[in-house]
Amino acid sequence: MAHSSNSEEQRFNAFYSEVKQIEKRDSVLTSAQQIERLLRPGATYFNLNPFEVLQLEPDTPIEQIKKKYRSLSILVHPDKNQDDKDRAQQAFEVINKAYKTLENELTRKRCLDVYEEAKDRTDMMISEKRKKLRREGKSDIIPEDDPGKYKHAVYVMVMKLFADMERRRQQLDLRDQEERKRKREQEIEEEEQRNYQKEWQKNFEESRQNRVNSWQNFRASASTSSSSSSPSASAGTLLMPEATKPKKAKKAKYTSFNPPKIKPETR
Q: For 22, which of 123, 137, 139, 254 is 20 to 30 Å away at the CA?
C-alpha cells in the first residue's frame, strides 16, 4: 500500500516538474500551448484549483486576477482558434469557471482556506518527519527545508485537498439526485393511487345508481302487475251465485246421557 502511494507521488512529481518547465519556458504561452495545458491528460485533476488554471498565486489581488483572466480568455477563445475550435471552446469554459470561482468573494475565500489548510498539513508532516529522524538518531535536515521543495509539497497537498472537495461534492450531488429520484417516484406512486381511488369511487357510484334504478324498476313493475290482477278477483267474488257457495257443515248437537233406573226384582 505504501509502495503504491510512493509510486503515485513520484508520477505526480514528474508530471508537476514537466508542467512547471513548460510554464517557465514561456510564462504566457501561445494559444495552442494554453489549450494543451488546460486539456492535457490529468488536467481535470489540476483544473480543480482555479489559481492553477489562471496561473496565479493565491495572494494575487482581484484586479490582477481580472487582467489575467482577460488575457487568457482571448488566447483560447474559439473565434481565435478556428483550426481547433472544439478544444478551444473546452479550454475557454475551464477558464471561465475558474474566474467565476475567484470573482465570487465567498468561493475565493474557500479556495484560500484550502491553501491555509494545505500549509498546516504540510508543516505537520514536516514536523513528524523531523521527530522520526531524531528518534532514529539521524540528522533532522529534510528536503522540504529548501523553499522550492517546501512550495512543491504545499502545492501537492493543495491538489489533494481540492480533489477531496470535488469527491465530496460529487457524493453529495449523487445523494441529492437519488433523493430527488426517490421523492419523484413516491409522488408518482401517490398520484397513481389517488387516480385509482377516484376511478374506483366513480365506478362504485355508477354501479350503485344502476342497482337503485333496477330495484325501482322492479318495484314499479311488481306494483303494476298486482294492481291489474286485483279487480278481477273481486268481481269473481261478487258475481259468484248463491248455489255455488259451499254450504257450511251443520254442527252436531250433543245431549247429556241419562242412564236407566234399575227396578227391584219381584218374585
A: 123
User: Grid cell 259451499 — which residue?
Assistant: 246
pTM for the structure as a whole: 0.58
CA distance 114 to 131: 26
What are 6-61's pLDDT values in tens digits? 666 666 666 566 555 555 544 557 999 999 999 998 888 889 999 999 999 999 99
The DSSP line for 36-87 is HHHHSTTHHHHTTSHHHHTT--TT--HHHHHHHHHHHHHHH-GGG-GGGHHH
Single-letter amino acid, residue 146: D
Q: Which residues contact residue 98 at a Cβ distance below 8 angstroms, ignoring those fewer than 6 apart?
A: 47, 50, 53, 54, 69
What SS3 state is found at 254?
A: coil
Q: Are 94 and 47 in contact (CB under 8 A)?
A: yes
Give which of 52, 34, 69 is closest to 161, Cα–Cα: 52
Which residues have CB under 8 Å from 69's CB, separation 6+?
A: 54, 95, 98, 99
* Those residues with Cβ within 8 angstroms of residue 26's Cβ, 6 or more apart along the chain or in another chain: 33
- Taking phi first (over 0 means left), then psi (-120 to 50 degrees means alpha), and beta for anything else, what does residue 87 get? alpha
The grid coordinates of residue 158 equal 493543495
What's the full length of the chain, in residues?
A: 267
**Rg for the chain, CA atoms, rounded:** 53
